[in-house]
Every structure is written in C-alpha cells, then in structure tokens.
Amino acid sequence: MRSCARVSCRPSTRPGALVTSSSWQAPGEGSEFEPEVVDQFKRAFYDQLAGGPNSPVMIADVEGRGRAIVARHNITKGQLITAEKPFVSYLSERVETHGAAHPPKPTRCDHCMRGLPPAAAKAAQHNNPAGLLLARYHEAICELGKEVREMEIHCSKDKRKFPLLAMRTMARILLNFRDTGSLDATWVPLQVLGFAKQKPELWTQDYDVFKRCFIHNEDQADFFSYEWYCRMMQIFYINSVSVTMDSTQQNVGAGLYILSSFYNHSCVPNTRSSYPENNTWHVYASKPIEAGQEIFISYVDHMKSNKTVETRRQHLYNHYGFWCECPRCRLELDLARREQGPA
C-alpha cells in the first residue's frame, strides 16, 4: 500500500531490547551506517522480497508515488503475477456470526483459512486437545487458548480484527525467535511497511487486554510494548486486507501481506485479485503489462461501488492518506467540473 515507513537492518538478538521509540529510524539516520550501506541493504531486501531475478516483478521507486511494484519483464493478460501467503492472518467467521460468550467451534483453520478435514473439525468441535491444536492455531499462539479466547471476546463486540492480527504477529515473532534466535524473518519485514498516523484512545484499552493475556516476563514487556502495539495497529490500518474466498464470495478473515503491500492503487487497475483456495492472495494481469510499467491493484471494489468520484477519493484519503489522481479520477473530476459550469 502507500508506504512511508523506515527500515532497520540490524535488529537486536534479544526481543526485549529492540522496540523503542527510536528503533524505527533507518540505519544511517543517526547511526553508524552510511547512506550507501542503507541503500544496498534496501535493494537486496526488496529484491529478495519480490522473488529475485526470475520473478516477473520488482520493487522500485516511482516518481510521485514512492515505492511500487513494477514489471521486471513483459507480462501477458491473464498471467499470474504474484501469489503470496500472508505474514499473519485471522479468521473472522466465529467472532462475527455468534455471540461473544459462545463463539462457534472452528470449521476452518484460523491461519490458512482452509476448510478443516472432517476428522480435524470433529476433534476441534469436541474440544479434543490435539484437534484444537491442529485446527485452530498453527503457531505458538496455539498454547494460549484461554488467553486467545479472552482477546476474541474483547474484540467481538465491535467486530475488530486488528488486535487479533497483533496477537498472531507476536506469536510468529516469538516462534521464529525460538527456532532461529533471529528476528530477521519476522521483524525486519514489518519495518518496511507504510503506517497510519492514528493513535485512537481505544488502542490503550486494547493493549491493556493484550498485555494481561500475552505478556508474561520483562523481556516480552520490553519488546511488545505499547509503542510496538500502536505501530502494529498503524501498519494493519493501512496494509491489512479482507480475504474473500472465490468459491463462496464470503469475507472469511483478514491478512497482512508484505510484498503485496507495495502495490499502489488505481481505480482502473491492470490486475485482478483472487483467493481460489485459501488465504493465498493471487494477483493476475487483467491486460498486457510492459516491462518497467507499474502494476496497480484497487483498494476499493470499484465494480460494485456506485460512489461518485468525490466520495471515492475522500474514502481513499480517509483510509489510506492520499488523494487519488489515477486516469479514471482525473477524467471524472474533469467531467464533473464541466457539468457544473463556470464558478
């Protein structure tokens, strides 16, 4: 999405020592790193994120829009451009369709959002511990069933997903750190994403619940601080997307996709999005795209929307912080001005 965040390329090896108010500055900005080193790191990181030289896309700077996804070579109509699994995701069916006190038993996996095999679903529905482990939580969070339920109930009242995504982000960071002793695969990618500037009062209440449920020692309190939590909320606000399964056309959850967050918006995108089986986000070319050309998605469902150009642009500004200047908006604004006549 629209991106403006900074990147830190040398995280601490101790989770509790990383997140402070100053940890969001790029190396080279008040650190020992030279700007050339920062640029080299960014180029290498973006190239790896985009899939390397064999990928049809790359991340590049585009004048007036910052970082963007552009075609590395010619792309044909209908060609698969990217297929990305989420960094984190969360299933919304249970907490959105039932009362908070009695969330329904799972029939889909909260992480991959596939329908569960009958045996796993049955085990989960009968509260079989092994079945619940398999069916509901694929990461370290699976060990925190009671605490997870408390957070789900807290969020179900207003149908909010972002605190649940923060919960799964914490689980992924802890699990990866436990397995590798490094934060490179989980913390660095988050720092390159754009973020909103909002910090509502509601986040303080959410963090109190989050801290009570999931913070169990001083190192965790240092790393997963209120500042960390707010930054996650700011990232999710701009970069998370709803997952709509192709087979049912139902919204089944939300996810955060690192690479796909670099797609910029157009009301006349040259792609179409699809979730054919689970929460893997497939982006296909809807028209031929030449090498070097920017690749766009739409942040709004322009096919179903009957909003005027003014309300559509206002929606994009309110949610993503920019006024759309795509060809469709410019044309419709010009037509609207002509219809209004001289001032």
TrEMBL record:
Residues 55-300 form the SET domain. Transmembrane segments: none annotated. Residues 12-31 are annotated as: Disordered. One of its GO terms (cellular component) is nucleus. InterPro entries: H3K4_H4K5_MeTrfase (IPR050869), SET_dom (IPR001214), SET_dom_sf (IPR046341). SMART domains: SET. It holds the Pfam family SET. This is SET domain containing protein.
